[in-house]
Specification:
The protein is built from 24 helices and 12 strands. The protein is of the alpha/beta class. The protein folds into 3 domains: 3-187, Serine Threonine Protein Phosphatase 5, Tetratricopeptide repeat (Alpha Horseshoe), CATH 1.25.40.10; 204-355 and 544-569, 3-Layer(aba) Sandwich (Rossmann fold); 366-540, Rossmann fold (3-Layer(aba) Sandwich), CATH 3.40.50. The strands form 2 sheets. The protein has a 7-stranded parallel beta sheet with strand order 3-2-1-4-5-6-7, covered by helices on one side. It has a 5-stranded parallel beta sheet with strand order 10-9-8-11-12. Helix 2 runs parallel beside helix 4 and helix 7 packs antiparallel against helix 8 (123-135). It is globular and about 80 Å long.
C-alpha cells in the first residue's frame, strides 16, 4: 500500500471512529513521512489529547519538533517518551536523532546503543549506532557492527542509509545494493507526477535541488560556477533551496546569480509541484542520500531529466535518476556496472570550486596551538572519516617524522579525547595531535597556509576539504580506492597535474609522507609546484567549467528532443 493510500485508509478509519488513538498515531507517521509537518502535528496532538502523556503520542510530537528544526524541544519530548517506554527501540532511535541535532553527541550515542541493545538484529539501528560511533571516533565493536550492516546489505534484508554506508570499506557493488534497497522504500512512499518532456525550443530551464544553498560545502563549491553559468543564453538557472536563508554572503551571491526558490519546510509533494510548475527541463540533485536531502521529491519525477551530481559520491540506486556526472578518474568505466544511472563525464574534474576566494593572512603557529618548529601534517576531514586505518597510517607517519604534529578538526563529544588515547596507545605523545575548532570559512581556509601536507582518509576521501587545501596551497596526499567516494581527492590531484601524490597503498602513503616530512626542501618544492599547477591546470577555472557543464547539459537535452534556442536554431 502506497503512502497516499495509507493516508486515505487512515482518514476513513478516523471518520468512522474519531477517538481511534492508534489511527491518529499512524496518521501522524504517514504525514511526517510525506514531509507535512503541520498535518503530522495535528494528528499527534489529537492522539495526545485522547491519551495524555502516552509515549507514542509524545514521540510523534518529538518528531514534529525535530522536523521543524526545534531540536532542543524534540530531545525533551522524546526523552520524556523514552523514559515512559524504556523498552521501545524506535523511540530510543528517534531520541538519538534529536540529541544529535541538539549537539548532545554522547547522549545520542547512548540512545543509539540502547536502541541497538533492544533490537540487536535490526540492521537500520545497527547502522545508526555504527555511523554515530564513527563520528565520535568510538571504535569499540565497530568491526562487528560493520560486518552486521554489510551482511544485511548483501542479503537485502534491511534498509541502511546509503550516505553512512559510504564510510564503510565496502565495494561499489555493495553501495549499489544499499542504495537500491533504500530507493525501493522511498518509491513506495510517494505518488509520481504524470510524465513530463523536455521543451523543444527556448533556453533550457535547469534546476538544482539542495539543502546546501548557503554557507555550506555545496554552496561554497557551486557559487562561482553559477555566477559563470548565468551568462549562458542557453540556460536558465533555478535553485530549489531545502534550507532556509542563513543570511550568508554565499546565499546572497546565489540569489543574485540564479532564480532561487525557497522550498524549505514544504511537503515533498508541494516541492515537486513547485519544480514542475517552473517547467524545469533538467533537475540536478545536489544532495542525494545525504542528511537534509529530499529523495522523495526526486522519486516523484518533477522533471523529465534528473541528474545526480556533486554532493553524493555514489549511485542513487533509484530509477528516477537518469544520469550521474563524474569524470574519468573519479568515475572510471569499471564502476559503471555498479551505477543505476547512465554515467556522463566532464573533460575536467567533476568538482567545481569558488575561485573568487581571497586568502586572509595566515595566523601565527602560536595562535593555532601549533609548535613553533616541526612539520605540520593536517587532516580537516569530518571525524567519521577518521577510522582506525586512516589514523593508524597517520600515526605511523608521526612516528617516522620527529617533532611533527597532526592538525585535526575538533570532533563532537569526546572524539578528540578518544583520538588522543588512540595516539597514546600507538606509542605517541597525545600532545602531537592538535585540534582546530570549527571556524568561519575564511579563517579556516587561512590556516592551510600553516600546514605542510594534508594526509587524506580512506575509504571516504577528502572532497571539499581537499579542494580547500589545494586552493590555499597545501598539497594533498591520497591513496585512491575503488569507489567514487574513495577517488575524489585523487581526481583533484590528477587534474591538477600532481598525480604522484596519488599513491598505491598504505605502505606507499606512509613512505611518501615520511620522506617529505623529513625533507624540508622537498616540501617547499612541492608547495611551489602546487602554486604553479593551480594557475595552469584549469582545475579552478570556473569559466571553463561552466562551458563544459553547459555543453554536457545541452547535448543530453538534444538527445531528448530539445532543438536549441532561437539563436541556435535560426
Amino acid at each position: 500500500m502506497s503512502a497516499w493510500q495509507q493516508r486515505q485508509h487512515l482518514q476513513q478509519a478516523i471518520a468512522r471512529q474519531p477517538d481511534d488513538f492508534v489511527a491518529w498515531v499512524m496518521l501522524a507517521d504517514v504525514e511526517l513521512e510525506a514531509g507535512d509537518i503541520a498535518a503530522g502535528e495535528q494528528a499527534a496532538r489529537r492522539a495526545l489529547q485522547l491519551r495524555p502523556n502516552h509515549p507514542e503520542a509524545l514521540a510523534r510530537l518529538g518528531r514534529v519538533a525535530w522536523m521543524a528544526g526545534a531540536h532542543g524541544d524534540a530531545a525533551k519530548l522524546l526523552g520524556q517518551a523514552s523514559a515512559l517506554a524504556p523498552q521501545h527501540p524506535g523511540i530510543a532511535l528517534w531520541l538519538g536523532h534529536a540529541l544529535e541535532d541538539a549537539d548532545d553527541a554522547e547522549g545520542a550515542s547512548a540512545a543509539y546503543r540502547r536502541a541497538h541493545g533492544l533490537m540487536p538484529a535490526e540492521p537500520y539501528i545497527a547502522a545508526q549506532r555504527l555511523a554515530w560511533q564513527r563520528r565520535l571516533c568510538d571504535w569499540q565493536d565497530v568491526d562487528s557492527l560493520a560486518a552486521q550492516v554489510r551482511a544485511a546489505v548483501a542479503s537485502g534484508q534491511g534498509v541502511v542509509e546509503p550516505f553512512a554506508f559510504l564510510s564503510e570499506d565496502a565495494s561499489a557493488a555493495e553501495q549499489l545494493a544499499c542504495a537500491r534497497t533504500r530507493a525501493v522504500a522511498v518509491a513506495a512512499s510517494v505518488r509520481p507526477l504524470p510524465p513530463a518532456t523536455v521543451r523543444p525550443h527556448g533556453p533550457l530551464r535547469v534546476g538544482f535541488l539542495s539543502n546546501g544553498f548557503g554557507a555550506h560545502p555545496t554552496g561554497l563549491l557551486t557559487v562561482a560556477l553559477f555566477e559563470q553559468l548565468r551568462h549562458d543564453p542557453a540556460l536558465q538557472l533555478h535553485l530549489f533551496a531545502l534550507n532556509r536563508d542563513d543570511g550568508s554572503r554565499i546565499r546572497q551571491r546565489l540569489q543574485t546569480a540564479t532564480q532561487l526558490h525557497d522550498v524549505a519546510g514544504l511537503r515533498h509533494a508541494d516541492t515537486a509541484a513547485r519544480i514542475r510548475a517552473q517547467g524545469i527541463d533538467l533537475l540536478f540533485d545536489l544532495r542525494g542520500w545525504g542528511g537534509g536531502g529530499a529523495p522523495e521529491v526526486l522519486a516523484m519525477r518533477p522533471a523529465p531529466l534528473q541528474l545526480n551530481w556533486l554532493a553524493y559520491p555514489g549511485t542513487s540506486g533509484g530509477p528516477w535518476m537518469d544520469a550521474v556526472i563524474g569524470d574519468a578518474f573519479a568515475l572510471p568505466p569499471a564502476l559503471e556496472p555498479h551505477y543505476n544511472e547512465r554515467a556522463l563525464r566532464l573533460p575536467r574534474a567533476f568538482q567545481p570550486s569558488d575561485n573568487t576566494r581571497v586568502l586572509e593572512p595566515a595566523p601565527t603557529r602560536a595562535d593555532c596551538g601549533l609548535p613553533v618548529q616541526g612539520v605540520v601534517f593536517c587532516c580537516f576531514n569530518n571525524s567519521y572519516k577518521l577510522n582506525p586505518r586512516s589514523m593508524g597510517r597517520a600515526f605511523a607517519v608521526l612516528q617516522a617524522v620527529p617533532c611533527s604534529v597532526l592538525w585535526l578538526l575538533s570532533g563532537p563529544g569526546q572524539a578528540d579525547a578518544r583520538l588522543r588515547a588512540a595516539a597514546e596507545a600507538a606509542g605517541l605523545d597525545p600532545a602531537r595531535l592538535v585540534f582546530m575548532d570549527k571556524l568561519p570559512h575564511p579563517q579556516y581556509l587561512a590556516r592551510y597556509q600553516l600546514a605542510d601536507l594534508f594526509l587524506d582518509t580512506h575509504p571516504y576521501n577528502a572532497h571539499t576539504t581537499a579542494s580547500d587545501a589545494l586552493w590555499a596551497g597545501c598539497p594533498v596526499l591520497t591513496c585512491p580506492g575503488d569507489t567514487f567516494a574513495a577517488r575524489v581527492a585523487g581526481s583533484l590531484n590528477h587534474h591538477l597535474g600532481l598525480a604522484r601524490l596519488n599513491v598505491a597503498d598504505d605502505a606507499a602513503f606512509i613512505a611518501t609522507a615520511s620522506a617529505l616530512g623529513n625533507d624540508p626542501a622537498a616540501l617547499a618544492a612541492l608547495r611551489a609546484e602546487l602554486a604553479q599547477a593551480r594557475e595552469r591546470s584549469g582545475l579552478f577555472d570556473m569559466g571553463g567549467f561552466a562551458h563544459d557543464l553547459s555543453a554536457l547539459v545541452q547535448q543530453l537535452a538534444r538527445e531528448h528532443g530539445w532543438l536549441g534556442t532561437a539563436e541556435q536554431t535560426g
